Amino acid sequence: MRTRQAMSLEQFNAAPAAEAHELLKPCLDVPRWIEEITAARPFASLDALLDAARNAADPFTAEELEGALAHHPRIGERAAGASAEATMSRSEQSGVDARDAATVAALAAGNKAYEEKFGRVFLIRAAGRSAKEMLSALQERLGHTPEEEEPVVAEQLREIAVLRLKQNLLEQSTALRGA
Predict the structure, then answer these.
(1) Is there a domain that residue 120 lies in?
(2) Is residue 99 part of a domain?
(3) The model's pTM
(4) Gap between the Cα atoms of 62 and 149, Å rounded
(5) Which CATH number fits the domain that encloses residue 169?
(6) What mean pLDDT comes out for the span 169-176?
(7) 3-state secondary structure labels for all residues of 135-159
(8) Dihedral class, residue 76 (left if φ above 0, else alpha if ψ from -120 to 50, else beta)
(9) What average pLDDT does range 33-60 have in this prediction?
(10) Record's InterPro entries (predicted)?
(11) Does residue 3 lie within any of the structural domains?
């Protein structure tokens, strides 16, 4: 079966559940979240879909958070592969310039410190942020306790999921209007 990376809201509303799952999974690989959104169709607007996506992602269980984080590369590292998720990740992290050796090294050191402290990859909505902004957030969050960091990670994951879902639907809708 061919992986579909984008579809219009109308196509999403009418798609068989398996196709809706294909669109949602690279946005956030949490089966409960995918099922809730698929079951809530049809949506009257993109905003209604995005609201449902935010609501379904709040709260995450600890297991859902850990499972979703397993799919995210470290900030400053390029995701490998041709999957929709890897492609999105590379685009989102475009603010990290590999030629800025000092920032890349600081991100690598910060990633290592974060993983040692929290036992998981540092997650931030990278889209629209510069490498220096992400580094600053990383350094700030290293001062958090695990209890303080948990809701921050969950919020970042929600932001990433909603942004990816919006981009997938808008990308296709824009292409259809231009045709």
Answers:
(1) yes
(2) yes
(3) 0.84
(4) 12
(5) 1.10.3330.10
(6) 56
(7) HHHHHHHCCCCHHHHHHHHHHHHHH
(8) left
(9) 96
(10) OHCU_decarboxylase, OHCU_decarboxylase-2, OHCU_decarboxylase_sf
(11) no
